[in-house]
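Notes to self, Transcriptional regulator LysR family:
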Amino acid sequence: MEIKNLRYFLAVAREENMSKAAEQLHVSQPTLSKTLKSLEEELGKKLFVRHSFSISLTDEGMLLRDRAQDLVAMSDKIEQEFNSLDDITGGYIYFGLAESYQIRYLAREIYKLKEKYPNFTYHITSGDTEQVTEKLDKGILDFAVLCETPDSNKYEYVKFPEADVWGAIMPSSHPLARKKSIRVSDLIGQPLFVSEQSWNNEIKAWAKDRFNELKLEGSFRLSYNGSVFARENLGILLTFKDLINTEGTDMVFKPLSPELKSELYLIWNKYQTFTPIAEKFLEQIKKAFK
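result:
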C-alpha cells in the first residue's frame, strides 16, 4: 500500500467529490478513479458510496481514513526528521498539548529556541490525555503535555513550574456568582460542564463522598465551547483559572474550595530517539523547568 495512494484517498474523503479532489491533487480524474479502484481491490473492501454529485465513505472507508491519517502523518514526520538531521539551524518538533494557561512556559522556551535556530518549525496538536498520548505512542508526536501524573513505566517527564487552579465559570447574574469561592455543597443540583477525563479524576477526588450528588450536564474537551454553553445559562463550567478570559465580560470565575490544583507535565517516550533540534529543546526545557 503506497503512501501516495493513501494521500489520494484522504483527499477524496475530505472533499467528498472526485473532481474537486483531483483538482486539489493536480491529477486527472481518471487517474484518481483508477487509484481508488486499485486501493479497493487491494483491500478487498468497498471504501466509497458514489452518489449523483458526491461521494461518501463506507464503514470500511471510515476505518481506513482514521488509519491513513496516522500513516501519512508518520510518513511526513519521518521525511522531515531525516531532512533535518544535517540541519544545524533548524528542524521540526511535534507537540500534543492539553489546555492550560501554563502552556505559556512552553511557548517561552519555543520562542527562545526560535531565536537561536531561525529555521526551527513546530507543529501543535491539541487534545486531552487520551488523544495526545495515543499519537505520542505511535511516534506521531515528539512531546505531549498532560494535566495528570504520567505513567513512569512508559514516559520520561518534567513538571511545569506552576500548577493550574480549578474554579467555576458562570454568568455574573448567577446566584453563586456572589460567593468568594465555590464548595461542593454549592454545586449540588447544578448542571455542570467539564471534560469527561477531569470529571472522573480531579472532580471526583475533590468532591469525595458527595461526588454522586453532582450532575454532569455535558462533557467538553475544549473549555471555550463549555464557556459558551455556560454563558447561555445551560450550566456551570468547571475549568482552570485564566483558561477563559472573563475580564470585562458578563462571566465570572470563582475558585473551588477546598482549593483544587492540577500539575502539568511535559512527557516523551522512554528510550526515544530525537532529532538534533528536539534534543536541544529538551536540554533547554530541563534547565528552565528545574
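- Residues 224 and 244 are 7 Å apart (CA to CA).
- Residues 59-84 form the longest helix (26 residues).
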